[in-house]
Design a protein that fits this description.
Chain lengths: 555, 316
């Protein structure tokens, strides 16, 4: 397995306090400065962080997450239930639910939207691929039948890409929901001009990489209207520009500041909040990569993990606003309770390297995308790792790449060591197992060289089992746990390594954990809700004191 | 040629289109290839592209998913407005400072002008731009911060795309004032580089002219030093300046990347940057051609201006 260590990053969010009084026209417009990165505003083709903010404002999903970011709460569906085998999910739509066009939201819109999400084969289509069909016993009831049981489907249904679109308006414009016709429909262009959802905002104007303007829907079906009549997301690529916009009153919220820029904001003009985020950065090793030359043995991988000074890394790359993470599943997600965070043990790292025959040192390439995501600069992280590893005589050659080139190389399994950034698509653990898990068919299994003789993801032969690479931190106890053996394979390991029973369905322990969290028990409906969740769960959890941070104020 | 170069990067744009989460999903990757025509052999892709481009269709951007022509039509006016302002400001300042330095060579004024020019050439715009913003927008509050127009003001109806012109046409003077004030800092940051080159060039060129025999002859006729400089040496020194200004104008139309990034200016430069980062081939090619066209047009324009100011370069 690719020795993966991960750590939590925290989103930094700065909100302008009472802006300079003079240069302030009507404050009915909320301005958010972000690096937009929008690939499409078609809900079924979009895939980006800003897209999630936009989609949550202009569209609605069947269910959403409560402000605690883990409990399923009603949105379009007032009530819901799952079959005992978690293969059939029934959603009872709120009879009041209306699209911006005035038409009631019906089960056929749900069916049309989920079918189109899969058929467009866009970046978010994986969310709908597990859906066999959507039945509509009546206009107010949508029954989602899955191809395989998945206890996390309620979590997936909260993903903004599972937005329900006004199918009548969209069909009339020539958009389709099945087959080639859907894959080639002009949705990208059509949705760049307008939105067709039931959310509290509607698209007013979109200029790619310039501004995204939303206008409040008056008389929204849930009754409570957002506080701001207009919300503008404006393009500001760098943290420095975002900070300037904030300080000069040109923006109310800057969403992607790094710790250093945030500290330099003029006192009294802005308030900086550090909010918990499930996004993380990780270091991965691919023993099967040709450039690794077979040197990334389990001992070496463990030594690398043990050589890193985690608190120092968090301090340097995140200004201290981060937490170490034990597995590829973010802290706080199902299955992560009680996991031991990674720890440094340089002495043991040196001993392991010596035992592996690298006492004289080892040269490796660390290739990474030169990105700065929410203030987490991967170049800074790479330099810190380089320093730490130099102390145990592992010499890293750093090679930053443009993201597009990095993606190509990492996909081809060419990179022996890399650093990456990962953000969840919804609240649930299966997505991490399906992406990072060391089992046939996952992206990281292939990237790490699984199936190419690297000894990954296979059941060990009888007899002395090969040592299993571990997530950092556990090695501190000085014993190498064995894969497949009874020892060292505590239940805490399972979330990330347990093979899943069927495609689309998460591993059983994961499923159990998820069941605990997402059981329909939470969803009786009736609870008063925020009109929307326009700031993505990762970017905005509360409201800043003197200016609105989430533009949907609680009713 | 651009087509060949943009394909020679070795990286597959389909990966950028699909994204990291799905780039291992064969069905999704195949669908994206088909949708964007990347499944065809390269010569066929080129033939299609050339045929479409000849009809004025530069394809659809992988990144914005809109026709590249529409994207550029939106972005070019922003760039033009900025670059015109920067060139005007920079040329005026450069001419004044260069003449001043040539009038008083070797003194404190000359040293000051040379320092100004050295900073203009060597300070990267992301630094000078941020300094200007920190001083005038944040600390003093005299001018607004980054952006072309306050998002709280509704943009004037689009006619030319040049905000100052559109706002004036619509009679929306609040928007006009805001747009004009927002233009000052980026134009100053970008104009500084133009002013630096113009000032240095003009100073050197004027000093050279002042050593010529015709100037000595004029001086012998008793002309004042000021008239010597402005009436006699300046017209002869101006030719080179015009050529350089023309060239810098063309380069900046598609190349003011740093200024546009720092000032959140939605122009061609920042569009090009996003295009390159995303391997957005249609956009990269269109911007390259636009840059080439700007160079040709601007060279022709500066030739005409040169001919107007300097009879020696007139044809025939």
């Amino acid at each position: 397995m690719a020795g993966i260590w991960t750590r939590g990053a925290a989103a930094l969010l700065a909100c302008a306090l009472a802006a300079p009084a003079a240069a302030q026209p009507a404050a009915d417009t909320l301005v958010v400065a972000r690096n937009m990165d929008v690939n499409s505003l078609d809900p079924h083709r979009a895939f980006c962080d800003t897209c999630q903010i936009y989609l949550s404002a202009a569209y609605e999903t069947l269910v959403t997450l409560a402000p605690d970011n883990r409990t399923v709460a009603p949105l379009l569906a007032a009530r819901w239930e799952a079959s005992p085998d978690f293969a059939r999910y029934t959603f009872h739509l709120d009879p009041r639910a209306r699209f911006a066009s005035g038409r009631a939201v019906e089960a056929r819109d749900v069916a049309w939207s989920f079918a189109r999400l899969a058929a467009t084969k866009g970046s978010g289509s994986f969310l709908a691929e597990e859906i066999e069909r959507v039945e509509a016993p009546d206009a107010r009831t949508a029954v989602v039948v899955l191809k395989a049981p998945n206890a996390e489907f309620f979590g997936a249904a909260t993903a903004p890409y599972m937005a329900v679109v006004d199918s009548e308006v969209a069909e009339a414009a020539g958009l389709r929901s099945v087959g080639e016709a859907a894959a080639n429909d002009p949705g990208d262009r059509w949705f760049a001009e307008r939105s067709a959802g039931s959310g509290p905002f509607a698209l007013a104007r979109y200029r790619p990489n310039d501004e995204l303007r939303l206008r409040r829907v008056e008389g929204h079906w849930r009754g409570a209207s957002p506080a701001s009549a207009e919300v503008v997301i404006r393009q500001a690529r760098d943290a420095a520009t975002q900070a300037q916009l904030l300080a000069s009153g040109g923006a109310d919220i800057a969403a992607q500041l790094d710790a250093e820029t945030a500290r330099a904001l003029p006192q009294g003009r802005a308030e900086v909040r550090v909010l918990p985020s499930p996004n993380f950065i990780y270091l991965a090793m691919a023993p099967g990569a040709p450039r690794a030359g077979g040197r990334l043995t389990p001992q070496v991988r463990e030594a690398v993990a043990l050589a890193i000074d985690y608190p120092g890394l968090i301090e340097l790359a995140l200004g201290g606003a981060g937490r170490p993470q034990a597995s590829p599943v973010p802290n706080g997600f199902p299955g992560t309770e009680g996991l031991a965070p990674p720890r440094q043990d340089a002495a043991r790292a040196s001993a392991l390297l010596a035992a592996a025959g690298h006492g004289g040192g080892l040269d490796l390439d660390l290739v990474f995308p030169a990105i700065n995501s929410y203030g987490a600069d991967l170049s800074v992280a790479a330099q810190k790792v380089q320093q730490d590893l130099a102390r145990v005589r592992v010499r890293l050659r750093l090679q930053p790449l443009a993201t597009a080139v990095w993606m190509e190389q990492v996909r081809a399994g060419q990179l022996p060591m890399t650093i990456g950034y990962y953000a969840p698509d919804y609240f649930g653990t299966a997505q991490y197992v399906q992406f990072f898990g060391m089992m046939e068919g996952t992206p990281w299994f292939r990237r790490a060289g699984g199936g190419r003789g690297a000894g990954l993801g296979q059941r060990p032969p009888a007899g002395p089992a090969p040592p299993r690479p571990r997530r950092p931190g556990r090695g501190a106890r000085g014993r190498v746990p064995r894969r497949g053996g009874g020892d060292g394979r505590g239940p805490r390991d399972r979330a990330a390594v347990q093979p899943r029973p069927r495609p689309g369905a998460p591993a059983r322990p994961v499923r159990r954990a998820v069941q605990r969290v997402l059981q329909p028990a939470a969803g009786g409906g009736g609870a008063a809700l925020r009109p929307a969740r326009p700031c993505s769960a990762s970017s905005c959890a509360g409201s800043c004191s003197s200016r609105r941070c989430c533009w949907a104020s609680p009713p | 040629m651009t087509f060949g170069l943009s394909r020679a990067t070795g990286a597959d744009p389909v990966v950028s289109i699909v994204g990291e989460r799905q780039m291992d999903n064969a069905a999704v990757v195949a669908a994206a290839r088909a949708r964007w025509g990347l499944d065809r052999p390269l010569p066929e892709q080129f033939a299609r592209y050339a045929a479409n481009a000849a009809r004025g269709d530069f394809g659809t951007s992988f990144r914005t998913r809109r026709p590249v022509g529409a994207d550029l039509a939106e972005r070019l006016p922003a760039s033009l407005e900025l670059v015109l302002a920067a060139t005007a400001l920079g040329t005026a300042a450069g001419l004044g400072l260069g003449a001043l330095a040539a009038r008083l060579p070797g003194g404190a004024v000359d040293a000051g002008v040379r320092a100004f020019a050295a900073m203009g050439v060597s300070l990267p715009v992301f630094l000078s731009g941020l300094l200007l913003l920190a001083l005038f927008a944040t600390a003093l509050g005299w001018l607004p911060g980054p952006g072309r127009l306050d998002p709280r003001l509704s943009p004037p109806p689009e006619a030319t795309g040049l905000l100052l012109v559109d706002a004036a046409l619509a009679g929306e003077w609040a928007a006009w004032r805001d747009a004009a004030r927002r233009l000052v800092l980026p134009a100053a940051a970008l104009g500084w580089t133009v002013a630096a080159v113009v000032a240095r060039l003009l100073r050197a060129s004027l000093l050279e002219q002042m050593g010529r025999q015709y100037v000595t002859a004029a001086r012998a006729r008793g002309l004042s030093p000021r008239r010597l400089l402005l009436g006699h040496a300046l017209p002869n020194a101006l030719g080179l300046v015009v050529a350089v200004v023309g060239l810098s104008f063309a380069t900046l139309v598609a190349g003011a990347v740093l200024t546009e990034t720092v000032f959140a200016w939605p122009g061609v430069g920042s569009y090009a940057l996003e295009a390159v980062r995303a391997l957005d081939h249609p956009a990269i090619m269109a911007v390259t051609m636009l840059g080439g066209a700007a160079l040709v047009l601007s060279a022709a324009a500066s030739d005409m201006v040169q001919a107007a100011v300097d009879p020696r370069v007139r044809l025939g």
